[in-house]
Each structure stands twice: as C-alpha cells, then as structure tokens.
Amino acid sequence: MKNIVALLILFASVLTIQAQQVLYESIMHDGVEREYILYIPANYSGNTQVPLVFNFHGYGSSATEQMFYGDFRSISDTAGFIIAHPQGTLFNGVTHWNVGGWTVGSTVDDVGFTEALIDSISANYAIDSLRIYSTGMSNGGFMSFLLACQLNHKITAIASVTGSMTPETYDYCTPVHPTPILQIHGTNDFVVPYSGATWTKSIDDIIEYWVSYNSCNPDPTITNLPDIDPNDGSTVIHYEYDDGIDGVFTEHYKIDGGGHTWPGSLFGGTGTNNDVDASVEIWNFFLRFKLLEGILGLSDSKEELIKIYPNPTKSIITIETNLSSPMDYKIMSIYGNILNVGIVTSDNPVVDLSILPPNIYLINIDKYTYKIIKAR
Fold first, then answer.
1. Of 252, 272, 298, which residue is a domain's last?
2. Contact 85, 63 (CB under 8 A)
3. Cα–Cα separations (whole angstroms), residue 175 to 14, 37, 116, 148
4. Which of 35, 44, 72, 342 lies at a 20 to 30 A Cα distance from 78?
C-alpha cells in the first residue's frame, strides 16, 4: 500500500463523482483531537434515517488511503449510506488501532473513540441507530472484531478483510446479541497468517467462535465461485453458516492463494483476487441485518430473489427475479458514473451490454449492487 498516496493523486484528478460530500472532521476524545473523513452520498437528504458504515484502515495506513483502497463510495451513492473513515493514532511511530496482540502497550481507547464518533455523527446526521456496521482492512478488521465484542450494543454486523481477532479480543469478547460476521481472508496472507500465530487467532478459530456464539448451523453451505480472472493466481470458496439465532449468518470468503489484499481493489497489487469485489459483498451482507430493540432481525431482503447471469458476459445478461413488480436498474462504471438505466420485469428480464467496452461494471438493483464482467 506504500504507493497508494501517489496513485490517489492521479486518480483524484480524473474521477468524476456526483454531488457527494467528503468532509474532513475531528472530535476531542480523552483529551486528544481525533480525525476522521466522512463521506455523504449524493442522494442524502436528511429527511430519512440512513445506515452508517465504519471503514477502518490497516496498520500504518490512513483514513485517506482506506477511502480509496477499500472503496465503498460508488455503492454509497446508490444505496444511500454514510461512510466514516476514522484515523488511527500513532503507536511506536505507526498509525494503529489498539486491539491487543502486537499493539499491547498502547493506551488509546479506540472503542470509546468509536462510540463517541457514533454519537457525534448521529447528532449531526439522520443515522439509523439500528443499522450501524463496521468493516476494515487488516488492523481495521481486528478493530471491527473488537467492536463486535466490546461495543456490541451499538454495532449491528461486522466484516473483516485480512483481519482476525487477537487473543485479548477473543478471550474477553462479551457480545450482547447474535452478530452477523463476514470474514474475507487469503490463504497466502503472510502478514496476518490464515493459520494464526501467537498474537492472532486462526481464521478457523474465529469462524468457529462466531458460528457457536450465533448458534448457526455448523455444517456450512460451500460454494466454489467462478474463476472470473484466471490470471490473479487465486480462487474463492464461499462458506455460509446459516440458521443462527434471529436469522443471523456467519460467512467466510476463503481466497485460496490470495494475499494480504482487498479483493477487487483498484490498488490491490500482487496477490489481489478479482473474482469478488469485497466492498460489494460486504454491503450486500450488511444490508440484510438490523437491530431490533437490542436483538437482531433480518432486513426485508430481495437478495435471494435476484440472480444475474451469465457473468461474465459478452453482450446479454438476464436478471432473474421472483418479484411481480418491475425493478429499476442502473449500470455504472467502477467509479460510480451512471452509464445506462432501465427497468426489468419477469416478462422482460434481459439487459443488453453490447455497447459497453470490455471491463468491470457495477449494476444497482433496488438497494443491491453487484459486479458484472463484460468479456471480450
């Protein structure tokens, strides 16, 4: 990620983004000025409560880098949620989140900072307190697990990309409600080893913990996802542990051969899987869940009623739905620019992409966003 800043400057000069707001803010917490970047989507009006997604950067990284690296902005512009990108403080001269493990010795209260940030953002924006989610890269994934354990009453669901749980988080985890967990991790991650280390639990350990805590079915549905990019050196296996308390799922995207990277990122580099887009998968996971008076409930989800195929395609995709009413769709570039709009019905489910050049695109249907590949 060391070259990301230079790339950000280049990309910032060419990206066309709608009337969103990127706000550089700060609050005082424990006598320290704590910074964060707030992304307000173009369709935010303040008249309706919207979800809040925390997106925590990795160890040694920054809020700015994470905003581009694990990018949710184009999804936010269509789905209508606000994104908070908090900035970590220095520990031994390196930006970090105090999660235990290799950060033992830090005195920063990042859980308290996050709670204060929720309160501050909620005081200024119409935030749905039943839909507050956390995700992050590496140390940011560890931070999301810490929030699931220690700020559970305010966090609906979390997703970790290349993160895990430190022994301290694992041993002192005290959630108060069943918590949907999504873990995305590469088997060739040599920064946060898939098999664990003295300072980090193995991915199998944390999946087992949350499957047990959520009382999910211990026998997962296992799906080998299509190898869309055979040149990225990795494939994806999806594990879905369903039927938990209050309808909770525990899920895992195992990137076989994947490294310490954010799948689908434009800035991923070597070891990045391109068969899935982590940001898209995380949001589609989050929006299925909301808190209900301190317990968890399922959102009104259409995800299982929508299928898009073939993907990749050279021209035509079919959007299969069991819903009787028409559904609007938008075809967007990966930067969020709208390229085509239309309506699909059960009688006319076909969308023609033949006018688009070969590339990766996003299609937004209702509140859901999917990645589609236009092949050569």
1. 298
2. yes
3. 44, 28, 19, 6
4. 35
Across 19-45, average pLDDT: 94
Residues 256 and 313 grouped into a single domain:
no
* Residue whose pair of structure tokens reads 């031994």 in the numeric block: 92
Longest dimension (CA), the chain: 62
How many whole angstroms separate alpha carbon 191 and alpha carbon 305?
Answer: 38
Contact between residue 33 and residue 113 where contact means Cβ atoms under 8 Å apart: no
CA atoms within 13 A on the CB side of 338: 11
Q: What is the pTM of this model?
A: 0.79
Sequence-separated (6 or more) residues with CB below 8 Å from residue 309: 317, 318, 320
- Residues facing 182 on adjacent strands: 159, 251
Indicate whether 136 and 95 sit together in one domain: yes
- Same domain, residue pair 172 and 308: no
Q: 138-195: per-residue pLDDT in tens?
A: 999 999 999 999 999 999 999 999 999 999 999 999 999 999 999 999 999 999 999 9
Domain count for the chain, please give it.
2
Of the residues 234, 267, 298, the one at which a domain ends = 298
Domain ranges, residue 156: 4-298
